[in-house]
Amino acid sequence: PRPPLVDRALVEVALALARRLSRHEQDVEDLAQEALLRLLRYDGEIASPTAWLYMMIRGLALRPRRQVEEP
Description:
Blueprint: H1 8-21, H2 28-41, H3 49-62
């Protein structure tokens, strides 16, 4: 089975979910992009892309933030 096509509406859903679940505004686009890439790479069936994105973005948002080392 092929993953669902990612259209503008699904991108907007991912961004809205990321805004709701992220504590950091600067992470919103990164969370949405990572979740959408994983959706495209997923090889199984997805009954509800919106629910799948919610679970993925939630998991990504709960990860500890990567610490950037200063040079």
